[in-house]
Amino acid sequence: MIIGTAGHIDHGKTALVGALTGVDTDRLKEEKARGISIDLGFAYLPAPDGSVLGFVDVPGHEKFVRNMLAGATGIDFVLLAVAADDGVMPQTREHLAILDLLGIRRGIVALTKADLADASQRAEIAAEIVGALSDTGLAGAEILPVSTVSGEGIDALRAALFTASAAFGARAVCGRFRLAVDRSFTLAGTGTIVTGTVLSGAVTAGDRVVVSPSGRQARVRSVHAQNRPATRGETGERCALNLAGEGISKDAIARGDMVVDPNLHAPTARIDASLRLLASETRPLAHWTPVRLHHAATDIGARVALLGDGPIPPGTDGRVQLVLERPIAAAVGDRFVLRDTSAQRTIGGGEFLDLRAPARRRRTPERRALLDAHAIADPQSALAALLACPPHAVDLVAFARDRALVQSEIAAICTNLGVVVLAADGTTAALSQAAVSDLKRKIAAALAAFHRERPDAAGIDVQQLRRAHAARLTANAFQVLLQIFAKAGDVLLDGAVVRLPSHAAQLKPQDQKLFARIAPLLGGDERFRPPRVRDIATAVAIPEQQVRALFKQLARMGQVDEIAPDHFFLRPTVAEIAHLLPALAAQASNGEFSAAQLRDRLDNGRKVAIQILEFFDRHGLTARRGDLRRINPQRLDQFGPPPAGRRARGVVA
To answer: Strand pairing partners for 111?
Structure first.
């Protein structure tokens, strides 16, 4: 269990931790000279059950609230110090407000300097404390008189902390690893050390991690957990990590950084959040108010964009968008605190809801419904709610990343919800069964209408269909969905077009006779360099315009492709060429090939080879970089399988 101190300056927090643990947490020279805590201090106390209690001692002076906030994140239990000869003071109340905003509900009150107060004064201050706690999550917390001078109550307080730790147990170790850095230093003979509280997941020596938001990659050389050498650090423990890697140094990692599982590195500078404005504020919170955002150990400037219909009155809740000066590493559900730009007072705080907030259309009914879904804490319930909102599709990779979920957790959620998962383009989209059924119905209706209007056409272009009915899905994800429908017999995929199984495009009888005369000119050994429309018209003694119209019709039917103006290739030939490209790319160490290499493979002219590649560029099968191309194998399916028994010139069996 991690215990954080809180309370007004000079109320004996550091002395109390010292009496409990034997450790003086004031480590800075200035702290020793001035007799006050300036930065965070740390101490540990072994418990009878073998566990270790970690203490984070925070400064009480109003000038160092930012340091107090850096230490308060990640604590499980608060030790609130209130001096018996002084009572509840301004920083006592501000610390209580901060703890409440951070969602800390467990704690105990130490009535310090009890040797300086008689029984009546103790009772008076205790009543004052009860009143101060009444509107917070610490209402009803036990109050124990203690004195570090006489030793009164120290043993009882220590025993109470042991009891609280045993009742608290250990946090569930789940999710991907995140550690909020509060210190970074160099240890002679060891290297760079970072310390902080593990917010989720676990880490072991040898793990690869990323320092976020900078993106520096590192390897964990060793782990200390709760002030002991360990093979593993887990959720809820204070850990020290010895990091190594290019660019890793104490100056490259600062308080406020996060050390995370590489899958979680995705900094954000625009976050939708819930916000509670403290009742102590004298005016409503207005749109675009400048603030200081405190999250984990981060302190950063931000602006508050209101998502409601007006300013947020003091003592009430609202939803806002936080626009940050620079990106930070965060997770959905993380707590934050807002202070004014002069760092004189705490304004409010709340919880992050959506780390990928839109800059525009952020107040529409559709967006508000999505935000309601994002606000659900349980990941499974949140995903179900998101899938029920337009566009009824969720990027599973982003959803799992922003909630720090491991693969097994998101897989179990998908199984429980029975969602349809579409994996393509390095992303994974999830759709509900209802959304898939609705899409299937819309696609079938669109195809039926198209076939009625265009009986001579082979079907609808796949991308045209996607833009009309599933624009939020990526091209490859939509292709995967169509393949699911095709496997079920609902549609047929024919290269780049899709049609109903019952539909078959037919040429008029006279066009069929004409194509029977033309087809031999496009196949056989000349299939990779077929004649152009003008040459075909001359060869068969048919007007050029009539030949061109026939080819346009055949293209709509999916039997030919217009590689270049008036230059048509049979669809099986295009498929054959497309399936040659992976082997061509495999011959190059970097997977890139030139038009000249394709020319040699097909034994045709360089100009035609370039036109073929430009055609594939337009369809996303190849991507050009200078004079070279790289293939996207995931796009091969749109051209169908290669013709059986076909082999291009120069191809070695």
So the answer is: 82, 145
